Structures are given as C-alpha cells and as structure tokens.
Amino acid sequence: MNPINSSDISPAELEARLRLHRLPELGPKRFHVLIDAFGCASKALSAPASAWRSLGLPAISAEARRSPKVRDGASEALAWLARPAQHLLMWDHPDYPALLAQIDDAPPLLFVAGDPDILEKPQLAMVGSRRASRPGMDTAAAFSRSLASAGFVITSGLAVGIDGAAHQAALDVGGHTIGVLGTGLENFYPQRHRKLAAAMIAQGSAVVSEFPLDTAPQAGNFPRRNRIISGLSLGVLVVEASIASGSLITARLAAEQGREVYAIPGSIHHPAAKGCHQLIRDGAVLVETIEHILEGLRGWQRLSHAAPVPVTHPLVALLHAAPHSSEALAIASGRPLSQVLATLTELELEGQVICESGRWLARCPLW
C-alpha cells in the first residue's frame, strides 16, 4: 500500500489538506463542506474569507490559514509520513475503511501507525471501564482471545482497564487489534500503554487517530474518538461499565450507526455492571458466551480457528451469578464446606477463581 494512499493527489493538495486539518475551527463536516464546495483543499485554502462565510463556515482569515503553527504542523506531518509503517488515509480515497466511510462525520484524514490493511478486515469493538474489576479484565481477555481466534480484529481505545486487556489478549493469540487514540499519534496517551501500542504495531496491528499528530490529551476528544471505534466495527461489546462510563457513549453511537450492541451482564450489586444492564434494557444483545456474538455474524469468522469451548465447573457458574463467601457457596451448591474449600483451592490454582476481601469471584467467562 502506498504510504500516504494518495497516488492521485498532488504534493501541494496533500499539504493543503494537512493545513486545513490543523485549523481548530474545522471539524469533519466542515472539512467535507469545503472540499465539496471548492473541489480541492488547495482552492479552499486560498479562497477569501467571505467565500467561507457564504458556506456558513467561520471566516478564517488568510493570515490564520498561513500561520507558522498551521504551516509547520503540515510540514511535520509530511515528514512523519515519509517514515516506514506510517500512513494517511483520506475519506474520499479507495483505501479508506468502507464501514467508517458510511458514518455521517467520518474523519477526513486518518493517521495510521502500523498496517492500514487490517482496517478493512471484519472488526469487533470491545470497550469497558477504565477501573475494571479483576474478573472484568479476565472476561475481556477471554472474549478477546476467542474473537481474535475466530478471525475478528479487536478494536478499542487503548485506555487502561478493559481496553488494554482486550488489545493484549488479541496479541497473545497471534490476532490483530486496532487502537483508536483520543490524541495525536506523536503525543501518545496514556503513557503506560506506549509499550502495548509499540507491540501492536510490531506484530502487524495498528494504532490510528484522526487528530493532528501533536494533539495533546483533551477531555472532549475522547468521546469524539468513540464514533471511530464503533464506525470501524461490525458491533460493539461492552464488558463492564458504570452508568456514567464513556463506553455507553460508544454503544449509543454504534446503535445510531446501525451496528450491533452487545453487553455482558454482571452482579446487580456491582456498580460497574449497571451500565451493561441499562444497555440490555435498551435492547442490547445479552452476552454470556461467544456464541451469542458469533451466531449473528456467521460467515465473518474463521470457524476452523475458533477457540475450543471449555466446560465450566458448577462452583464457577455460581460465582458468575454473584460473588460468594465459602460458606454461601456451600449452601448454594449443597456441598460440604470442606469439599467446597478444597475445590476452590484447585480452581484458584487453575486461575478460574480468585478470593478478594473474603468473597470468591469467577475469573473466566461462562461459556
């Protein structure tokens, strides 16, 4: 693939697009209006401010469009694109992801570090709480491994918590994963996932952003990037989320974009399950096993490579309903307490359960 995917665009037009892209007053829709009205970014950039005003756009002066920050930022982007494994996708070019191009406010420019070809492969988004519980992290990892093994690219936001667990699990089984940043690719956030992002790029996956390369973290940009996560994907799986979680924004955008929304239920006593429960009440598909996702997406996944389905121990099944003390498990299961304690020790050694604050929790999804 051409590094800038622009075989039919002149260097001057490419630079003009990069300059327009740096103007903070122009979002995706206004950028599209300019290109549609003037035919190219070069003409839009040189048009008088009155012409912009007549289109209902901010009358940005010619001086502002030629400012050192705009000019130098475009030059730095051109230098960035000259390096290996760094690409630019444009919404009106054939290499732009087809699903993403369907949304109303598709990013006019998309910077890609890694392999841009995987953006065209079938993707499932996985999102959830940044302050996820350990069982939530384990559930995210297990679903990501199985979905990646079934042939799906796992797409998420490279945030801490559920996002990071999903990305890492996909890599662990040799799958592909895409991280969508809420910052520029040269101003990476969160810093603790820089090594994860580097591993993704090195293993044939990708990290993408619609923002200029030097864009710093800004609170409003993270909800904005969520439309890209859902827009790239066939569906969005919410693993664990509170009512106020940004993951619910991604789910709402997915529904508006005509994507499927999946949610994993949890204990009614766990605050981080309430967002998923609300989504289910609103019509999201309740997911307990990977089959609840795959049954609606037959033909997209490689069934021959799907992960084997394990057998769930009865005690683990009880813990999926809610955390239990050892005594409560003995009562619920009808087994002697000594037998329950011995079995829990074995399950803990196998990594299936964990004890926190005197209560046992399941660490693997209920298939």
From TrEMBL:
InterPro entries: DprA (IPR003488), DprA_WH (IPR041614), DrpA_SLOG (IPR057666), WH-like_DNA-bd_sf (IPR036388)
Domain DprA winged helix: 309-358
GO biological process terms on file: DNA-mediated transformation
Residue intervals of the Smf/DprA SLOG domain: 88-297
Pfam families the record matches: DNA_processg_A, DprA_N, WHD_DprA
Family: Belongs to the DprA/Smf family.
PANTHER family: PROTEIN SMF (PTHR43022)
Protein name listed in UniProt: DNA-protecting protein DprA
Gene name as annotated: dprA
